[in-house]
Amino acid sequence: MHKFVRSLLTEWRRLGLPVEGEKIVVAVSGGADSVSLLLALDELRKRKKIQNELIAAHFDHGLRREASDADAEFVKTLAEGLGVRCIVGRGKIASKGNLEQNARRARYQFLQKTAVESRATAVVTAHTINDQAETFLFNLVRGTGPDGLAAMPPDRELGDGIILARPLLRWPHRAETDAFCNDMDDEPRSYTMNEVPAFNRL
Fold first, then answer.
1. What is the pLDDT of residues 170-180, one digit of tens each?
2. Are 36 and 180 in contact (CB under 8 A)?
3. pTM for this one?
4. Looking at domain 3-194, which of 3.80.30.20, 3.40.50.620, 3.40.50.11030, 3.10.20.30 is its CATH number?
């Protein structure tokens, strides 16, 4: 078993996430972090370390035109190859206020709705230690209080009884997720985070 997959299993158990019979929504943007999460979870499923139904969920903000369409197609193709159901959501982002925050809010609303309609108990996202550091610095520059400086928790309630968990938050850096994707690919390619906007990860 690949070291990355073993580390994910350790964190999965530490967070107390379900390992049998429940549906899990996996947020997949198409970048290295989310692709590595889906690939590793599929590997755990094939090895029967977890026996959950995985549902790949991709939200297309429609902000990058052809590139957004390409991201959605890539995620659908990836999920199909793994035998994982894929749900793609699309929506217009409010232009009033902070675009990044509006896009993030729309994405989480889509993930929550997908989980409820799929009768899933949890949504998992691929935030890494890099995202944690970026969020901390962003909040620091913005002048947030002590709660904001705590950055992102590894899990919290999303709403409607759905748990939002971030099993990559404590350990991998982006170089590790990119390397794992290429290790798992018969034809190595670079899954760089430049492929997707920042608000599609947070």
1. 988 889 999 99
2. yes
3. 0.85
4. 3.40.50.620
